[in-house]
Design brief:
- 2 copies of one chain form a homodimer.
- By secondary structure, the first copy, chain A, is α+β, with helices and mostly antiparallel strands.
- Chain A has a domain at 344-436: Anticodon-binding domain (Rossmann fold), CATH 3.40.50.
- Chain A is built from 16 helices and 17 strands.
- In chain A, a hairpin with a 5-residue loop joins strand 3 (66-68) and strand 4 (74-77).
- The radius of gyration of chain A is 28 Å and the shape is elongated.
- At the A-B interface, helix 1, strand 1, strand 2, helix 2 and helix 3 of A face helix 1, strand 1, strand 2, helix 2 and helix 3 of B.
Chain lengths: 437, 437
């Protein structure tokens, strides 16, 4: 028995069945991104390690694939598409602002593999560089919603917050920047951990009971902005910064309303996005029936990050995992029947007509019909069995006798109906059958 | 001045301009592969190093990106798509033979970067597993030709040979397997090195002048098979193996003829494909005006390779580099105008109508028109300048006065023609203008 070769942990192949679904999803994402005027790029797959560290700090090394190349340089595989796009625009001063870019591609993370989470996975990611207006945030949120709706998803919700408002709130409570960031990272886990565990962690950061109560009171507020904005404790709105940043949320929701997206959006003060580089509007979208797979897209404003990469522009963006999205769609039964087998198979009744089968195949392909033929000198019976096992709907049988009359036999595999047709009429006959299906 | 981050040597980003062209190319490849009944897959990007070595020997380490993961396992980035697909089919006994798979994807090689050659590049690759018939070779060659023709390329040629015929010929001259393989690797460089350098190398392998003359005589034969097959020296056809393998070529060309591909195909005994795992029909396609970029596709039979990966089936395949193909197309001026900017820009005459602009944008996108709007509180003049610099053909201007009459101003940027239209008629007006262009 020859040996088999396995795959590294967390790495997988995409099968034909999966690929048919993935292409369907990617095409729809590309269609929507185009409607929004985003331009597609592909940032490099390999970066200097320092480029990756510039976004996420030196600890990122532990979470990614990194290595020395043969010249001793430290490199790493990209762990998102934001770093690359942000590095790209830093040297493209020819592009007028705002710059709307998007990418769809694979990335690598050295995480512990779990359900819906691989070490190599696909994301779509759209960014707007050069606008500090909440209009830009509304635009990327709207894009995310239209992508999900294009997939057929209906029962989802985008939870929106403003990191700046949270900053002002925590500062107001007397927390310094370090404690504030630590608190944000703990709140970010609210959906994954029990409440008492969260509270214990907040105590460890140094918050007393009264502070914890105030934090927990605010982050438990969520719902339609009309309602929630009136429920914010007065204490949380007493500084100018609080009012200003709360107003940004107001403005954002008014834009989302004009974009006809308000129905899908809620204000949720527990959404803070754990990552340190977010510094404004943040948001996460959840499939209501499947929050266990995590956010199906998320994003927010990262005004300070671009400067690190050499161009001081405000920015906001949205990204979502393709594998997760596909799980959500699978659960909701949203994939149509996506045939990946050819439409026709040209069978030969005897080997003398093999070359004629090739001629027919070439002409059908030229006419736009996908077709396959026997490559293994199979008997007619075996050819029909093969076509059947492949799920090919139509078999065209070429026999010597029929050929003398310029005819072939056309067999519909589902109904087992057989009939003769003139060899020159095959395209018309196929059009009729395939459209009738 | 903030610092900029560069890219690792030989690694590049794909810009919006390039991406528009690449997508055009990839869609056409996918279309043709579908017509041939190939099913798309994506093999893993990271493999165990031993999986990669199984194809190409331990020296492959020097030519690829390889590294230890955090658990100390030796891994490598894929250097082609054949290894992955071959590993995949070894465990898919549910798929009936022949199995026709294809993939399009990026791969990495630690080569010295040169014109048209990067350390990360894209290939398309189609393989047929389970058929030893020259019909399968004809099928992959035909696929390659149809892909090039779909791109609009006309002046190209597929040079075809049979490694088994060359083996028989060299064995006949008294060369053992090692010398025979070494000779093949030297002949493979005929298109890149001067003839005398080739001859010196053949002397180094141990061939005497008489043998070298016989080898050079055979490998200089190339042209239409009808002509070339009659010019083969009698000595080269004196064994049964020679006759049999020469006949395989004959059979192949008869199939290519039936597939209507003979016009593009020649027999060329200098094409041997240097790689050791090829063991039958081999071929390379060249853009006649641009042989300097190398073969635009190539491939052949690798019957013995699959067994190494755990499934003893014959196989043949074809692969081509996307970047090279795009250079060839660029040189031949084959790319159509591929607009990647949105079709419309919604400009506002004053900020009071901003929300109205969003409503119009949302409705136009819903109707299938790509559109963008101001995200930076620009003046109307600046908005028009931005739309112009982006090459957006149509601007829809929203002003308060017009809005009272339910009207907007539509401006064609090329002709600077302006006219008023009812806000509800915009989709029809756009259809007319965009189709007229």
């Amino acid at each position: 028995m020859p040996r088999k070769f396995g795959l590294p942990r967390g790495i997988h192949d995409v099968t034909p069945e999966e690929m048919a679904k993935r292409l369907w999803v990617l095409n729809k994402i590309m269609k929507v991104a185009r409607l929004y005027g985003f331009q597609m790029v592909e940032p490099a797959t390999i970066e200097h390690l320092e480029t990756l560290e510039a976004k996420s700090g030196p600890d990122i090394k532990n979470e990614i694939y990194c290595f020395k190349d043969k010249a001793g340089r430290d490199l790493g595989l990209r762990f998102d598409l934001t770093v690359g796009m942000t590095r790209m625009i830093a040297s493209r001063y020819d592009l007028p602002e705002p710059i709307k870019l998007y990418a769809i591609g694979g990335m690598w993370r050295y995480d512990e593999p779990q359900y819906g989470r691989y070490r190599y996975f696909y994301q779509w990611d759209a960014e707007i560089y050069g606008s500090s207006s909440p209009l830009a945030d509304a635009e990327v949120i709207s894009l995310g919603i239209d992508i999900l709706e294009e997939m057929g998803l209906k029962d989802f919700e985008v939870k929106i917050n403003n990191r700046k408002f949270m900053d002002a709130f925590l500062k107001n409570l007397g927390l310094n920047e370090e404690k504030s960031l630590a608190t944000m990272r703990i709140i970010d886990k609210l959906r994954k951990k029990p409440k008492n565990e969260i509270e214990v962690q907040l105590i460890e950061v140094g918050l007393n009971e009264s502070l914890i109560n105030k934090v927990m009171e605010l982050v438990s507020l969520n719902g339609k902005p009309e309602k929630i904005l009136s429920q914010i404790p007065k204490e949380a709105l007493k500084t100018e910064e609080s009012l200003k940043t709360c107003n940004e949320l107001n403005e954002l929701f008014s834009y989302l309303n004009s974009l006809n997206k308000n129905e899908k959006c809620v204000l949720d003060f527990s959404v803070v996005r754990g990552l340190d580089y977010y510094d404004g509007i943040v948001f996460e979208a959840y499939d209501k029936g499947g929050e266990d797979i995590g956010a199906i897209f998320g994003g927010g404003r990262f005004d300070k990050l671009c400067k690190i990469y050499g161009r001081d522009v405000p920015a906001t963006g949205v990204a979502g995992g393709i594998e997760r999205l596909m799980i959500s769609m699978e659960r909701n039964g949203l994939f149509p029947n996506l045939p990946f087998q050819p439409e026709t198979f040209i069978a030969v009744a005897s080997s003398e007509v093999k070359n004629k089968a090739l001629e027919v195949a070439a002409s059908l392909r030229k006419a736009g019909f996908s077709c396959d033929f026997d490559l293994k000198n199979k008997s007619l019976k075996q050819q029909l069995e093969y076509a059947n096992s492949m799920g090919i709907p139509i078999v065209i049988i070429i026999g010597i006798k029929e050929l003398l009359n310029n005819q072939v036999t056309i067999k519909e595999m589902k109904t087992r109906k057989e009939f003769k047709a003139n060899i020159n009429d095959i395209p018309q006959v196929l059009t009729k059958i395939l459209k009738g299906n």
